[in-house]
Design goal:
The longest helix is centred in the C-terminal third of the chain and has 25 residues, at 289-313. 42% of the residues are buried. It is built from 8 helices and 10 strands. It has a 5-stranded mixed sheet, with helices on both faces. By secondary structure, it is of the alpha/beta class. Helix 6 (174-185) packs parallel to helix 7 and helix 6 (174-185) packs parallel to helix 8 (289-313).
Length: 314
């Protein structure tokens, strides 16, 4: 099987027919990383395991609901984790790959012969939820790999789009976080708090940090008295500090993804005790890097808020 030549030609054809993406609703888009496929067999198919995902990526890129991690970022993540083949990727390692690449969904799989047929089995893994789905394509042993890629790409794309709510964890809106905490805080004496979270987006410091704004909003809605250190000499009972940053993920047509990371700690000023520590990473997809970056940081902050505030009042 002249694998490399066949795949290279097929990839070229696939890349040429990919249509420009129409503008999509950013909240409906999922960030996907397609990993190398395992070709653990006696046949000479090692190159196929590396090249078939390129074909899959090319055909799946026609979906306006998917944005893809670049191959270089995937290779760097696998190198850092010392993972050489897809067979070692499971829901546990998927979380780390997702963190390194910013992917919400991973696609990996195996290519193997059974008698006179070649089976290509794709495994779809939700980074945040650990849910796993599978799709399969079958062709004759010396059959058309390009057609197999088209068939499997359609199945995998449809599976991600229709089952996305089980693959990607739902992020609570800040209003929902407030509502869920209000009953728990009812009747309790709330400490005064101050918030100082430094933020950097796309390599630049921000004067309107999303993480700090998000957390201040939630605390204010819950009835906390907030002390501004820049405007008052009085120290708050609880000082919340930390840092947040976002970085560009990838672009796919009109869609851009960014990864945001937030780390915070809360300190009881009178005792010096660290009463809470939280960190979270989130990914957001939008039509610009800046908006996606802020959205990712806001999502990460909202995920931290419930546990942080519960620790403070406890």
């Amino acid at each position: 099987m002249n694998t490399l030549r066949h795949i290279a030609l097929s990839f070229f054809i696939a890349a040429c027919i990919v249509a420009p993406l129409p503008q999509a609703a950013a909240q409906d888009a999922y960030t996907v990383a397609i990993l190398p496929f395992d070709t653990n067999s006696k046949l000479d198919m090692d190159d196929l395991g590396q090249e078939f995902p390129l074909l899959l990526n090319a055909y799946m890129s026609q979906s306006d609901k998917l944005a893809f991690v670049e191959r270089g970022q995937i290779d760097n993540a696998l190198d850092e984790m010392a993972i050489g083949i897809s067979g070692t990727v499971d829901p546990a390692t998927a979380a780390q790959i997702g963190y390194l690449t910013g992917a919400q969904v991973l696609v990996t799989g195996r290519i193997f012969p059974v008698q006179k047929d070649l089976f290509i089995v794709a495994k779809i893994i939700g980074v945040e939820t650990g849910r796993v789905y599978g799709e399969t394509a079958k062709i004759p042993l010396r059959g058309d790999m390009d057609q197999a890629a088209q068939d499997l790409a359609a199945k995998v794309a449809e599976s991600i789009e229709t089952k996305g709510d089980t693959l990607v964890a739902k992020v609570q809106a800040k209003e929902d976080v407030v509502a869920s905490l209000q009953s728990m805080l009812k009747g309790k004496k709330l400490p005064t708090v101050s918030v100082a979270i430094e933020e950097e987006s796309l390599g630049r410091a921000l004067v309107d940090p999303a993480a700090q704004t998000e957390l201040l909003y939630i605390l204010h809605q819950l009835g906390f008295t907030i002390i501004d250190p820049a405007e008052s000499n009085v120290r708050a009972d609880i000082e919340i500090s930390g840092e947040a940053f976002s970085e560009f993920g990838m672009r796919n047509g009109s869609l851009v993804s960014s990864k945001g990371r937030v780390e915070v700690k809360a300190v009881n000023v009178s005792t010096g005790e660290v009463v809470s520590v939280g960190r979270h990473v989130a990914v957001a997809v939008d039509l610009s890097r800046e908006i996606a970056g802020k959205a990712a940081i806001s999502k990460a902050t909202t995920k931290i808020a419930s546990a942080l505030i519960t620790d403070i009042v406890s």
